[in-house]
Design a protein that fits this description.
Elements: H1 2-19, H2 31-60, H3 69-89, H4 93-97, H5 105-139, H6 146-173, H7 178-189, H8 191-201, H9 203-206, H10 210-233, H11 240-260
Length: 261
């Protein structure tokens, strides 16, 4: 149980540490460091989507024979579609963070603050569900090992680190106190362990659908990588650091899954 407890909190800690940058950095995170972290997180999440989610989903469906890929395909497509629709009804994080203020600055600051927290919170719900699904499978003796589950949590935590900073640092630059900016950044990630715990509590209901749910989580994470992480890490055609980070993250996740899984 201790592995599960800490595993569920790891992604939240990533957000907390990222938001804590407001106490140590004057303006913003070093651009190269941010690109490397985003690339690394992208590599971990892509590898986790394959080895920790899609392959186990297909292994759980081996009774279908040559159609064992079907639950994984359906779940993956639904995960991508869900995040696509979510992006259509909520603003992109980086678009909000870079949005210039209008003439009514005090009103715009409040609106921008709430939009930032709201957008990140909504995007964190599927990630929390993904962590809950893999730990539900681990706790019930499924195809997911403790190493798979922890590695997935670490990958999401690494992604959450720059997200926490992206919220807290702009809020600080708007005139909010360091503590208030930190709290806003932290609260945006609090939904992840809540979503994970709720998913585990519903284990009896989700077990029959685990292949679909695991691949749903894979689709959601791959969408986040393509839509959010890589564009931010490779903006202005600066791709070298991101590419190296991605390769290192992918390789690390592959090693963890094979050696410890």
């Amino acid at each position: 149980m201790s592995i599960t407890f800490w595993g569920l909190l790891i992604p939240f800690f990533g957000t907390v540490f990222g938001a804590g940058c407001v106490f140590f950095l004057k303006r913003e995170m070093n651009d190269s460091v941010q690109r490397a972290l985003l690339g690394f997180a992208a590599g971990v999440m892509v590898a986790a989507s394959v080895w920790s989610l899609l392959i186990p989903a297909m292994n759980m469906s081996d009774s279908l024979g040559r159609l064992a890929f079907l639950p994984a395909l359906v779940g993956f497509g639904l995960g991508v579609a869900f995040l696509f629709l979510l992006d259509k009804i909520t603003p992109h994080l980086h678009a909000i963070a870079e949005k210039p203020e209008g003439p009514k600055s005090s009103i715009n600051k409040i609106s921008r603050t709430m939009m930032l927290v709201f957008a990140v919170t909504l995007h964190n719900i599927p990630e929390g569900m993904a962590v809950g699904v893999v730990f539900a499978s681990f706790l019930n003796g499924g195809a997911i090992s403790s190493a798979d589950a922890i590695a997935l949590s670490l990958g999401i935590a690494i992604q959450n680190f720059p997200e926490g900073a992206i919220i807290s640092m702009p809020l600080r630059s708007e005139g909010n106190s360091k503590l208030r900016s930190f709290l806003y950044g932290t609260l945006s990630g609090a939904v992840e362990p809540v979503a994970a715990v709720l998913t585990i509590l519903l284990t009896s209901l989700v077990l029959p659908f685990l292949p679909y749910l695991l691949s749903f989580a894979a689709g959601a994470m791959v969408y986040v990588v393509i839509e959010e992480l890589l564009p931010e890490a490779t903006r202005e055609e600066k791709t070298d650091i991101c590419t190296i980070g991605f390769a290192l993250g992918f390789a690390l996740m592959m090693v963890l899954d094979v050696a410890l899984g």
